[in-house]
Amino acid sequence: MPVIAVVNRKGGSGKSTLATHLAAWCAVTGRSAMLGDVDLQGSSASWLKRRQSNHEARGRGIVGWSADPRRVMRPPAGVTHVVLDTPGGLRGLDLSKVVMASDVLLLPVCHSLFDRESAADCLAELRQISRVAAGRCRIGVVGMRLDARTRAEDALRAWAAELDVPFVGALRETQNYVRCAERGLTVFDLPAAKVQADLDQWQPILEWLQPAMNLSVRPAVGEPAERTGSAETERMPPPRREPPRRPRFSPSTAQVPLDILQAPRQRGWLARLAAWFGHSASRRRPLRGT
């Protein structure tokens, strides 16, 4: 199933605003979405609670999930699209865990120099992860809280072009997002006449995401996959499993096992994500020089 993660190691960059709106857009357009809150602050989870008690919310219900290292969770049957809201300061192995479970990464960036510098560092680390480097996980930049009276959007577009990363859209500074967050809503839940300017800004972002949104949906957990192939093929014994090998570590960083970065995707993505978050800190190798 398509997995979209909203990532930026700088806090207050607009990650929760993007994540909640993407999940709501899936719900409003008839998709069955799950909003995964990997951030211990729980902004998206809090928003979802308010939404569930607000009769103004449109579309299908949104399933919530919070990363808990003490247990492994799976998406409920029927979920077709997943949006992950991640915490600030995400880096190293924890960042790799999220990326290896995702198909698309959205990087929200505000206009200030500090925001751009932090986002550039995050982007450089993302590009070192094998799934991104191989082109299996796309990255797009979204400008956040931009003043339409300034040239902030033009400056961010130029910055993204210099870093050779797609600039997929920009969202303006408006109280519409503040009021929506307080009520568990999004601009997709409000009358179009009141938020048309905001809906227009979302259009290029959603168009860029469309290829990921249209990914084929895997059978839901608990539902048997369709049997294909001849009976002779189905009677063949399962392939022999090789004994597990010791994890090999990347030469560029001693804390990210290559076996994790290059892990196959046969396992459920959410099971792998929760399992990785549950790794004991004592088993991680310390960084060199520490």
Question: Overview of this structure, please?
Answer:
- Helices cover 38% and strands 13% of the residues.
- The protein is an alpha/beta fold.
- The protein has a single domain, classed as Rossmann fold.
- Strands 3-2-4-1-5-6-7 form a 7-stranded parallel β-sheet, with helices on both faces.
- Helix 1 (15-28) packs parallel to helix 2 and helix 3 runs antiparallel to helix 11.
- The protein is globular and about 45 Å long.
- The chain starts with a strand and ends in a 13-residue tail after the last helix.
- The model is unreliable at 216-239, 246-258 and 280-284 (pLDDT under 50).
The CATH topology assignment is: Rossmann fold
* Computed structural class: alpha/beta
Helix content: 25-40%
Count the beta strands. 7
Return the CATH architecture: 3-Layer(aba) Sandwich
Radius of gyration: 20 Å
Query: Can you give the mean pLDDT?
Result: 80
Fourth-tier CATH superfamily name: P-loop containing nucleotide triphosphate hydrolases
The number of helical runs is 11
Into which percentage range does the β-strand content fall? Answer: 5-15%
The H-and-E topology, N to C, reads as EHEHEEHEHHEHEHHHHH
CA(first)-CA(last) distance: 40 Å
Number of domains: 1
Order of strands across the main sheet? 3-2-4-1-5-6-7
For the sheet with most strands, the description reads:
7 strands, parallel
